[in-house]
Write a structure and sequence with these properties.
Elements: E1 30-37, H1 49-54, H2 56-62, E2 69-76, H3 81-88, E3 94-98, H4 99-111, E4 116-125, E5 131-135, E6 151-154, H5 159-170, E7 180-183, H6 186-195, E8 200-204, H7 207-213, E9 218-222, E10 230-237, H8 238-243, H9 245-264, H10 266-277, H11 281-288, E11 295-296, H12 302-317, H13 326-329, H14 333-339, H15 342-348, E12 356-360, E13 368-370, H16 373-382, E14 387-393, E15 400-402, E16 407-411, E17 414-418, H17 421-430, E18 435-437, H18 439-446
Helix pairs in contact: 2-9, 3-4, 4-12, 9-10, 9-14, 10-11, 16-18
Length: 447
């Protein structure tokens, strides 16, 4: 499972149009394949950071036996937009990004006569839990209604912006007039939240979890409340796919191998991604762990395609795209061939059930799973100095969250965790005698 990683060329980080050779670079038997990825967007790791570190793509290319010498050029970007720019310029062959950027990728490709196709999925959450709206730790904002007239930072055109728009609409708030939207890159928005120049931040993985873990934010809205799938996927230039189908198939086989590695070795994978991205491993595991917010599977599930079609209207309203023909953009023929007989099984597979989990200190290889949040709390109470991280699923949405950052409700002898105060209050209102308690109180009750 752990072949030696082949040497790849250095990533181009900041200048998407500088110094790039043609995606068809090389002469004779030499071929350069350029892959654009987002190291900090950790739901793309099976087509980016983790895949690169494992060297599986290079191994698959070397096994083609077609007499050609392949070199993989990995280019790391902060968002999907520059990857799309490079792809439509013919300078990136394969890229990975979130669902909303994928639609923009499709629209730009068609507009510039450089069509692209969605060929596989990296990570997904069928309820939408990959996006979260957070506020400052000491903020008095407790629900979406409290955002009226407030400054909210997001990245327009991203899935996080889509979550914000939909959430506000469901709450009866005009996304254009009810708030002051700040269009900012995630890092800028995070700084704005800390500085007080933004009242809230709507962002995608891993920013909400990171800021919460660092004590710089708390959750206001769990994207899973929308109950609409969000995902990240792999897009390829149509010309490249037609000219080098064997190379694309090799990539998708490698992605499948990286997915199997992540699912079989979630702790080791989290540590590897953390080392490459400088993100805390505990945050990576929140999203990519055995019971994490994201499920990894290359299969292009119908639920995800359906959600993608629903996303088009959000981008059209923002005047970022016109109509997008999702059916012509989605093309799973290559991943079907790459995965062979296992594709149908993966297509039908459901995400693993949510579970409470503890990552003990001093053990880099395994975590402990518990049947109930109360059992986890009992363990934590008795091993306070031995816990690296503790995770619990929201009682309503199943979204995993840090146990010490969750909102806890005591309902008789039952202890229930929630990602946000709002969902906790909804439960309390519907269950007489239930009440919100502190984390310390919950630990005491469990022990």
């Amino acid at each position: 499972m752990k072949p030696k990683a082949a040497v790849a060329t250095a990533a181009l980080l900041l200048f998407p149009l500088a110094g790039c050779g043609s995606a068809e670079a090389g002469s004779g038997s030499a071929v350069t394949v350029t892959v654009g990825y987002q190291s900090k967007t950790i739901n793309t790791v099976t087509a980016g950071t983790l895949l690169r570190s494992l060297g599986y793509f290079e191994k698959e290319l070397n096994a083609l036996g077609d007499g050609k010498t392949y070199k993989v050029e990995w280019q790391d970007y902060a968002t999907g937009a520059p990857i799309t720019a490079q792809m439509t310029a013919g300078k990136i062959d394969i890229g990975s990004m979130g669902d909303f950027p994928l639609l923009i990728n499709a629209a730009r490709g068609k507009q510039l006569n450089q069509p692209t196709h969605l060929v596989s999925i990296t990570g997904y959450n069928l309820r939408g839990g990959l996006n979260t709206i957070v506020t400052a730790p000491d903020s008095q904002l407790a629900s979406l209604q409290d955002l009226k007239g407030k400054k909210v930072s997001t990245s327009v055109g991203s899935a996080a912006d889509g979550t914000l728009v939909r959430a506000l609409q469901r709450a009866g708030i005009d996304p254009d007039k009810g708030i002051e939207k700040l269009n900012q890159q995630p890092a800028v928005g995070a700084s704005a939240l800390s500085a007080g120049s933004a009242d809230a931040l709507s962002q995608f993985v891993a920013w909400p979890g990171l800021l919460t873990y660092q004590g710089k934010a708390k959750a206001l809205y769990d994207g899973a409340q929308l109950n609409l799938a969000t995902f990240h996927g792999v897009t390829v230039r149509e010309k490249f796919a037609k000219e080098r189908p064997a190379v694309l198939e090799a990539f998708l086989k490698a992605q499948s191998e990286a997915t199997a590695y992540l699912n079989d070795h979630p702790v080791a994978a989290a540590e590897s991604v953390a080392k490459a991205t400088k993100l805390p491993a505990e945050v990576v595991y929140l999203y990519n762990g055995a019971h994490g917010i994201s499920t990894f599977d290359p299969a292009v599930k119908p639920q995800l395609v359906s959600a993608l079609k629903k996303d088009v209207s959000i981008l059209k309203e923002a005047k970022l795209t016109g109509d997008v023909d999702v059916d012509s953009f989605v093309d799973d023929q290559y991943v079907r061939k790459a995965l062979g007989s296992s594709y149908a099984r993966q297509l039908a597979a459901a995400p693993p059930p949510a579970a409470s989990e503890v990552w003990p200190k001093g053990d880099a290889t395994k975590t402990l799973a518990f049947k109930t949040p109360a059992e986890l709390l009992n363990y934590v109470a008795g091993h306070k100095d031995e816990v690296r991280a503790a995770y619990v699923p929201d009682a309503t949405t199943g979204t995993l969250w840090f146990a010490d950052k969750a909102v806890w409700v005591a309902d008789g002898t039952t202890l229930l965790p929630f990602v946000t105060p709002d969902t906790a209050q909804v439960y309390v209102a519907a269950h007489g005698g239930a009440r919100v308690v502190t984390y310390a109180d919950a630990l005491g009750r469990a022990s």
